[in-house]
Amino acid sequence: MARPSRVFHLEPPQSRTAAKPRATGGGGKAGIIAGFLAPHPPHLIYAENPANNEPRSHGGWETLRWGYEAARKRLRELKPDVIVVQASHWITAVGHHVNCVENPKGVSVDPIFPHLFRYTFDFHTDVELAEAVVAEGKSLGLTMGAMRHPGLRVDYGTISALHLLNPAWDIPVVSLSANNNPYFFADADMGEMETLGEATRRAIEGTGRRAVIVASNSLSHLHWDVEPDVPEDMAREHIYNDHQYRWDMKLLELIRAGRTAELRRFIPEHIEATAAEIKTGSLNWMLAAMGWPEVPGIVHAYGSVIGTGNAIVEWNMA
Questions:
Q1: Is residue 184 part of a domain?
Q2: CB 275: neighbour CB atoms within 10 A?
């Protein structure tokens, strides 16, 4: 029996003190050392039961969660100075915005799944790098905004991807918005997102950072609109349809083979065929920032959440 959506009156859980940014001591040349495709379904946070997410579960979606455990291990080995993330749910209709608040904190609530995701966040921004991304974007002709309001609400897509990759929250962050307006539709030009990727790369190199960059997106994005009584009931979880699955596999085959030039041409086809969430541009932004590298991507996991296709992928540039 399906359960209707619920509305909650929320009392924020007690916030923990944010971990201070650590000296990573990674060494090596400044620049982008790795990129991760990091899907952000709030269900994965819910299933993990971290102390700073209020709802409790009995697990679920283990394939993806175990894939994130492998990605976390890789991130610790890389020892980046900063994590730069672009997520599809901080939507800005005019221009690209960068979070320049030194210590964002508050409660992030998923507006679609508030019964799964009510997360107390408290982290540190690499403000110097964030301001540099704004400046470099402007120099390349982009409309950019530096968000400095201390009460800025951080969206669940940003929080989910960052928690799933680094639940210790001990690495500084730079987060970018999704300027969906000019490229929301399937036939949209991703050129502006690729320009933002170039601006991001210049800012990282110019500030001497060793950075991991993160595209917070799912792949195929048709999904179920009725959830089971127990959200983590894995007997009800499977990909939306075979068509979606096959197109996701075509994209992942190109990634795993390192055929990145073909991937660049294939992405618009994948978006049109599957209503893919990568239409918001995060994947193009990340790959453009890395120079569309002809290196194989490591697929740590692929799995379904409410019917959507989700892949955790690493490109190692170190």
A1: yes
A2: 16
